[in-house]
Write a structure and sequence with these properties.
Radius of gyration: 18 Å
Keywords: Isomerase
Number of helices: 5
GO molecular function, one term: L-rhamnose mutarotase activity
Organism: Blautia massiliensis (ex Durand et al. 2017)
Order of helices and strands: EHEEHEEEHEEHEHE
Strand order of the largest sheet: 4-1-3-2-10
Pfam family, one: rhaM
Distance between the termini: 14 Å
Enzyme class: isomerase
Helix content: 25-40%
Largest sheet: 5 strands, antiparallel
Low-confidence stretches: none
Number of domains: 2
């Protein structure tokens, strides 16, 4: 399975138009996804940012005819946003913990977060998360994170996490302290767009909202 992600910024005053047009093209878009074996497709929003995630089989190739269909659909909504990622190319994968991917999504909850890197901090962010991957080694994480990836483009960070709710446990004081230490350190290299650490910083940010989803 291959994982892909894209991101865009909605133009000022165009969010209602973006949502409306997305609804209008949704039947055509989902038909395109089904024809081309694209699964677990979702679109998320916070502030004026849009993040999209999807999966397909290894080596799946989109035909020239279907590329034209995608281009036509994009054109219909294209005047509502500017690209953050490069169209047709994945963002940079900054972290992954793919673990055991659950086929049944009924007991899965999602976490999707957004941050903005401080100038010149992309490599430091990558290095810190490479360290987390190295600590885990080659072992498969049994959960509760089952499909966790963090992507970057245009100075932004976008995290996507599928969490097995049957494996979640109450956070211990020690784990809470470790989280606070990590997030405090991260504040030196990035600023939050979503509200994931408002409980710690006492700031107020919007939550991420899943605008659309197609399995």
């Amino acid at each position: 399975m291959e994982r892909h992600a894209f991101a865009m910024k909605v133009k000022e005053g165009k969010m209602n138009d973006y949502r409306k047009t997305l609804g209008e093209i949704w039947p055509e878009l989902t038909a395109y996804l089904d024809r081309n074996g694209i699964h677990n497709f979702s679109i998320w929003n916070a502030a004026d940012l849009i993040f999209g995630y999807y999966e397909n089989a290894d080596g799946e190739v989109i035909s020239p005819e279907e590329e034209k269909v995608k281009a036509a659909l994009t054109e219909k909504i294209g005047d509502t946003f500017t690209w953050i990622s490069t169209p047709g190319k994945d963002m940079r994968l900054m972290y992954h913990n793919f673990g055991v991917v659950r086929e049944n999504k009924e007991l899965i909850r999602h976490r999707m977060f957004m941050t903005k890197l401080k100038d010149g901090c992309e490599e430091e962010y990558k290095a810190r998360h490479d360290g987390l991957v190295a600590q885990r080694g080659e072992t498969i994480d049994p959960g509760p994170d089952s499909n966790f990836s963090i992507w970057s483009a245009g100075g932004y960070i976008f995290g996507y996490d599928e969490i097995d709710t049957t494996m979640e446990v109450e956070e211990t004081p020690e784990a809470r302290e470790a989280t606070i230490a990590w997030e405090t350190r991260q504040l030196g290299i990035m600023d939050w767009i979503t509200n994931d650490v408002d409980w710690m910083t006492k700031e107020v940010h919007p939550s991420s909202v899943r605008l659309a989803w197609h399995n």
